[in-house]
Amino acid sequence: MKLFQLIYGFTNTKLMKIFSNRNINGQIMHVAIYVAVWAAALAASSPRADASAKEDWEIDVDTTIFMREARELQEIIVKPKKEKYSKRNNPAVELMERVRRYQRNGNPTLTDNYSYDQYDKTTLGLLDFSDKELKRHKFLKNYIDTTRYGSRQVLYVLMKEKNATQLYSDEGKRHKTVVRSRNSSGIDEAFNDGNVGTMLEEMFREVDIYSDDITMMANRFVSPLSAIGADYYKYFITDTLDIDGTRCIQLTFTPHNHESFSFMGNLYIELGDTTGFVKKVSMKVPRTINLNYVDNLYIDQTFEKDTLGRRHKVLDEMNLDLCLIPGTQRFYAHRTSRYTDFSYARRKDLARAYDMLGDVWEIDTDMDRHGNFGSVTRFENLTHAEANMGSFMTQLREVPFFYWAEKVLVILVNGYLKTGSPSKFDIGPVNTMISGNTIEGVRLRLGGMTTANLSPHWFARGYAAYGTRDHRWKYKGELEYSFNSKKYHSREFPVNSLRATYMYDLDMLGQHYLFTNADNVFLTWKRKPSTLATYRHLAKLEYNLELRNLFSFSVWGENVRQDATRWLPFTDGTGKNYRHYSRTTFGVKLRYAPGEKFIQEKSTRVPINMDAPVIQLTHEWGPKGLLGSDFTTQRTELSVQKRFWFSAFGYTDIIVKGGMIWSQVQYPELMWPNANLSYTIQPESYSLMNPMEFAMDKYASWDLTYWGNGVLFNRIPLVKKAKLREVVGFKGIYGGISDRNKPELNGNLFRFPTDSGTRYMGNTPYMEISAGIDNIFTILRVDYVWRLSYRDTPGADRSGLRVALHFTF
């Protein structure tokens, strides 16, 4: 071999390795040596070389080359010229448009009947365990696995499996999921409520690349095959290669703005196929994307085509690297979905499922308290670590630090403290044990509830509270019979129960928080004191029924006695004082939320997303004289809420409500708008309004919040590195009061308290507008709020700063 060629190959290979190494500074001297060798070779090839140089520029192998001096070279950065990209007359864009144009032709779900079986496996683990930890806990080495991407060490702490059958009918208009079996092992066992699995399913939503938007991580990403794809992405035809024996065109795509919610990757399209059949998809999120906690996200999908030319997804994989706080433990999540038994025939063994209520039917006759049931049929083998998850968790819980860390985490997440194993009575909620307000001073509260370990049908819950300033005991007791057998607590979906409640507590007029407890410790700090409250006695009997299609209704009868206080006296037009009044009513509430998904807590539910519309209608009626009722009650309210997405440009949450009181009632029963006196941001309440500021017996309100998801900040240099997001709010209420409920026109009605500052609303609605920055340090939202109308109200704030914790991807 000629030495010239040998040196060229050797030095070129070494230089490529050096310049691809990020630690380039330590390699400068090596570069100098290789350059000297290259220069010597060139010198040997020059016509002015010594006559002893051999023919064909060969030199003796044992020739020694000396360097006269060493020089440190500057770092060399090679950048390509700025590309000139155009979507016009671009064959790559035309190919993408062809795939979009024919995508309906190859969609099997649009036929009269289509079904397939699906196996899902989701794992969550800890990444990159240190050697120190492995030495300290030697048993960990037996459960170390490797990630699908990068072959990094991972220690799995959760695995969830599911077998399901997907049924499509009526040309895709109807879709049902029949869950045949479910299995879970790992940390999810400690929570007993399946919420970890629910969050993972929402996080790992199945990706449809043919849709305009891809919903994932509680956000919407623009699909590479979106209708706006040509304006959002750059497309290139980069190669032609074989994919599982099929010759494919490699269509590469990358977003114009890498901070936006988008992907980059490749579509492998069958060569010569006029319909643009996509054989494989491989994509990931950009490194600089404005997405919290996610370092890497990879999606791989494989398709097959049947004899009818329709596509079937056979494999769907998603890999995710997570880091909640920089410098802390990293997490790895992996989801595999495999699809088999594709059929265009109606499934006779699942004939009932086609007409069932709701979109999901779980064959859960033998479901255990963890939500596991059936025998999982696997379409792939488990690794050693996955197969031995149970024994691993047993050993891990013997480590004191993990044992107590898990206990604390369960209390923080569930809000309740268990009293045994299994627990028959849970103490909580812990966030209400101590709080405060102007009337009670420091409020101390202790409560709890029974669990299904005591009885799967009978449940009790309640609390006792004491105020250090008013020196009064408050209490609540609840007894409930569930017609459905429950796994842990009475509020589990679906509810079908009869419930009896009796309580005695403060009623803060115009301060009814809808999404948290009024004595939540975080609501203790307020912008101004308020004493506009009564003491209320409530006795209530109600029946609640929830159906699988997420339609629910409640019917109830209740008796309420309101006791006057020195802050809210009950004085009629003649000056006569009353100690209390009573009312007895019957009510019905209808609620429909198709497609709603939520986190099931012990007392409430937290929606995972607000994509589903929520419609709620309530009516109450009670005649005067019924069980001591002092007046007739007729009250109706309607509310509608929905989230509207604007693809890459964020989304808007809209809540619209209206109500009417058809009868004459005392002032505590009027429709008082909710004033938020805390410094936190609370939905469906007004941050700058005073309690009892506007008296009304009819109203219409709106609450609009626009979340920009970085649509502006992602385009500002330096600012975009902070991953900030825009949020704008506009809310208001317009209402009035009829003559029958005006105290000055009716002597039998109680007068408004002098200190309340109550007024009637004029022709202008009350309005607030806010502008804020979300995603500060990935968890904080800060708004500045302006009061737009009735700014002359005595004691009212015209503007102010409000904050909220907002955890989202």
List keywords for this structure.
809 residues; mainly beta; 18-stranded antiparallel β-sheet
Give the end-to-end Cα distance, rounded to a whole number of Å: 58 Å
As residue ranges, the low-confidence spans are 1-73
Give the count of helical stretches: 9
Proportion in helices? 10-25%
**How would a crystallographer describe the biggest sheet?**
18 strands, antiparallel
The global form is globular
User: What structural category do the secondary elements indicate?
Assistant: mainly beta
Rg over CA atoms: 33 Å
Q: Estimate the strand proportion.
A: 35-45%
Q: Could you tell me the mean pLDDT? A: 84
Count of β-strands: 36
How would you describe this protein?
With 809 residues, the chain is mainly beta. The chain is built from nine helices and 36 strands. The protein has an 18-stranded antiparallel beta sheet that branches. Strands 1, 2, 3, 4, 7, 8, 9, 10, 11, 12, 13 and 14 form a twelve-stranded mixed beta sheet that branches. A hairpin with a 5-residue loop joins β11 (294-305) and β12 (311-323). α1 packs antiparallel against α2. The radius of gyration is 33 Å and the shape is globular. The two termini are 58 Å apart. Mean pLDDT is 84; it is low at 1-73.
